[in-house]
Amino acid sequence: MKLLKIKDLRVKLEDEDKQILKGVDLEIGAGEVHAIMGPNGSGKSTLSYVLAGRGGYEVTGGTAHMDGLDLLDVAPEDRAAAGLFLAFQYPVEIPGVGNMTFLRTAVNAQRKARRQDEMSAAEFLKVVRARAKELKIDADMLKRPVNVGFSGGEKKRNEILQMAMLEPKMCILDETDSGLDVDAMKLVSEGVNALRNGKRSFLVITHYQRLLDHIKPDVVHIMADGRIIKSGGPELALNVEQNGYADLLAEVA
Amino acid sequence: MSAPNPRTVATEALLDTLKMPEGGCIEVARRAALARLRAMGLPQRRDEYWKFTKPDTLLTAEVPPAAPFDNEEGLLFDEFDRLKIVFVDGVFDPQASDDLSLEGVSFDRLEDICCTDIHWAKDIYGVLETRGQTPVPRPFAALNTAFATDGIAIHVTGRPSKPISLIYIHGSRASDAILHHVIRVESGAEVTILENGPAAARLNECMEIDIADGGTLHHVRAQGRDPERRAVTAMFTRLGKQSVFKSFTVTVNGALTRNESVIELIGDDGVAHVAGACVGDAGGNRDFHHDDTVFVTHDALNCESRQVFKKVLRNGATGVFQGKILVKAGAQKTDGYQISQALLLDDDSQFLAKPELEIYADDVICSHGSTTGAIDETALFYLRSRGVPQKEATNLLTLSFLAEAVDEIEDKALAEDIRSRLENWLSRRG
Ligand SMILES: Nc1ncnc2c1ncn2[C@@H]1O[C@H](COP(=O)(O)OP(=O)(O)O)[C@@H](O)[C@H]1O
Ligand SMILES: [Mg+2]
């Protein structure tokens, strides 16, 4: 059973005559970890944004389903409540909204959408503290406004904390490793691995093989110019690491 | 014969309809105020500080009618232990008010001051207002001093155990209230003054506050939810050495509001903060026009002033901010801050700002900023991508926008009461 099914997805910018995704096909089974690598500007972030429902893009063709839900047909919050999560390449700062308030609002909004009871303040606090501790997120970071004044690494850990709290089915991580030092990368990978449970699926977008040493992918895709040009096993990532994209690009040209 | 000056004609026409209360030690001040008003005349649209706000409906002999609002939500501050002083359509209501006795404070009605020849309020009534007339004339305040029909004089000599709460009930559709309060905070004394309610169909309120060395006054005001009411208010505050004045106003609805705050720091090390959060919707048949006009004068060493004003506007609502920091020569080490921001929830609303700095001392830090913007789409998407529905996410961002102003209230319980009212306002609408 495939959890995520993307078929011939074509996307252009809403305000500009610029096609970015030119027919993306991708299927991810429940419990699988897929990685997407590819040169800058190939459309990796665009794919993740379109799946999450960001405005500014126009889908000109194709489909995207998660667990039978037509993702492109519903609002971003409904996609989230259905179990989709995007860890942003550039996490957003929200002055004036406390990190803790943000987390609790998100968790309870999703529970409400799924007709579950809200988490009590005490229970929430307990869970958040435990998860935060694993990610070395201190009490101060929980109190501060969302991502405001956070270092690059802190922002990325904060994304993983949100993911851990929201317990999604399908996690998309957009360059979660960029800007992280070795220790931070280990922390983040451990956080991700802790969430692997045989059912939850991951789409890991990265430039570097080294993240894939920590988060072992089942399938690696190479994206270039708005298409997935090659898919294979983990060895594909090693190949890219050693030889760059030039050969692969030449192969399809 | 030259044509009569239109300003003079308008002023005299309105004065013909008003009657000055007589007697007591403030009668002299009333007569002087009338002379001041005649000299400056009532405001007109072309006046420098009335360019953004039409004074017309504040000047008519007949009050534009305003239906009292059925407030199912209950009045603000209901949960708080406080001394209640109630005015209905601008008239003191002894039955509805608490017994006016509280340790560390004494109270007199304006009416009572009118009957005595000697009263402490004589040194303040009309005096601070007069000082506040230069360099910018404030005709409604002069009119108020001359014609005020009720009000309270509050003399704070200690630290009363609870806030003094002025409650303004709006009863009749055509009420026209002129209230004038005088407050003196003695050296080392401290008090919290609360004001809430729409007061009348049309309110002209003036408050003169004199804070002696080391005195502290906290002021928290809510102007009621009546969509049709009009108000022009002026607060004149003079601060002595090491004294503290913190004033916050929340405005929800109201066809027209003009709040002026004129602050003079005349003793070293004084602290004056004035803040406002307003949310307005001019949808349906409603008007919403809210104007904050602030003038802070630094005339002593090492004083701090802050102006923090936030406005949320929708459906063609208009917000105005005119704020000035004047630092006189010799007012070294002044720390002045001013921010005015508007969040426009649609393209029809507008925010007009006139921030001004005038500085004659060289060793000062003064900053000011003014912004107008819409909801941050990136932040909105981030919240929605976490499962927060669009409306809830918008409200969360709107409240966070207002937070900097609401946070100016020192009493956290009062701040929370106001924050929750603002949240209710947001969730009541689309
Ligand atoms: N909102 C946008 N406005 C303008 N150009 C965009 C926008 N989003 C993406 N692009 C362009 O689309 C292409 C793909 O970008 P992106 O998806 O960020 O690639 P990647 O994540 O693979 O580096 C780039 O050429 C980028 O400049
Ligand atoms: Mg990218």
Could you explain how this protein is built, in words?
The complex is a heterodimer of chains A (253) and B (430). Chain A has 253 residues and is an alpha/beta fold. Chain A is built from ten helices and twelve strands. A six-stranded mixed β-sheet of chain A has the order 6-9-10-3-11-12, with helices on both faces. Chain A has a four-stranded antiparallel β-sheet with strand order 2-1-4-5, with helices on one face. In chain A, helix 6 runs parallel beside helix 7. The longest helix of chain A has 15 residues, at 99-113. Chain B has 430 residues and is an alpha/beta fold. Chain B has one domain. Chain B is built from nine helices and 19 strands. In chain B, a hairpin with a 2-residue loop joins strand 1 (83-88) and strand 2 (91-92). The model of chain B has no long low-confidence stretch (mean pLDDT 94). The interface between A and B is medium-sized, with 30 and 23 residues. Residues 13, 20, 38, 40-46, 56 of chain A line the site of adenosine-5'-diphosphate.
Secondary-structure blueprint of this entry?
The complex is a heterodimer of chains A (253) and B (430).
Chain A: E1 2-13, E2 19-29, E3 33-37, H1 44-52, E4 57-66, E5 69-70, H2 76-81, E6 84-87, E7 94-98, H3 99-113, H4 121-134, H5 139-143, E8 145-146, H6 152-166, E9 170-174, H7 182-195, E10 201-205, H8 209-214, E11 219-224, E12 227-232, H9 235-243, H10 246-252
Parallel strand pairs in A: 3-10, 3-11, 6-9, 9-10
Antiparallel strand pairs in A: 1-2, 1-4, 4-5, 7-8, 11-12
Helix pairs in contact in A: 4-6, 6-7
Chain B: H1 6-15, H2 27-40, H3 56-59, E1 83-88, E2 91-92, E3 105-109, H4 110-115, H5 127-131, H6 139-147, E4 152-156, E5 164-169, E6 176-185, E7 190-196, E8 202-211, E9 216-222, E10 230-239, E11 244-252, E12 256-265, E13 271-281, E14 289-298, E15 304-314, E16 318-327, E17 335-344, E18 350-359, E19 365-373, H7 377-385, H8 390-406, H9 412-428
Parallel strand pairs in B: 1-5, 4-6, 5-7, 6-8, 7-9, 8-10, 9-11, 10-12, 11-13, 12-14, 13-15, 14-16, 15-17, 16-18, 17-19
Antiparallel strand pairs in B: 1-2, 3-4
Bound molecules: adenosine-5'-diphosphate and magnesium ion.
Adenosine-5'-diphosphate binds next to helix 1 of chain A.
